[in-house]
Design brief:
The protein has 96 residues and is an all-alpha fold.
Length: 96
């Protein structure tokens, strides 16, 4: 399949990008090269290859959540720069 300027503009429109006419002349051979590579991949026999959902077959190992150590509020706050008796104090980042 060979692409022409009209097809390049249609692809750019679908991708919502702006392409100048000068860029089209550069893109035509580059995109044709990509398409010829993809056609080469279609020649491979993939009948015995299982489809992939993920790149590896790792499975999550679920475990129960267990509380191992609890610290007091005072210990949790002692290294913070600013705090009240119960909360961390952080700079305001959202203005109303």
């Amino acid at each position: 399949m060979n692409l022409d300027a009209k097809t390049i503009h249609k692809i750019a429109d679908l991708a919502r990008i702006h392409i100048d006419d000068q860029e089209v002349d550069t893109l035509i051979p580059e995109m044709n090269k990509i398409l010829s590579f993809m056609e080469k991949l279609n020649e491979l026999d993939t009948a015995e290859v299982k489809p992939l959902v993920y790149m590896n077959e790792a499975v999550n190992i679920w475990r129960e959540d267990v509380v191992k150590q609890e610290i007091s509020t005072a210990d949790g706050l002692k290294n913070s720069a600013k705090h009240t008796d119960q909360f961390f104090m952080v700079p305001k980042i959202i203005e109303k």
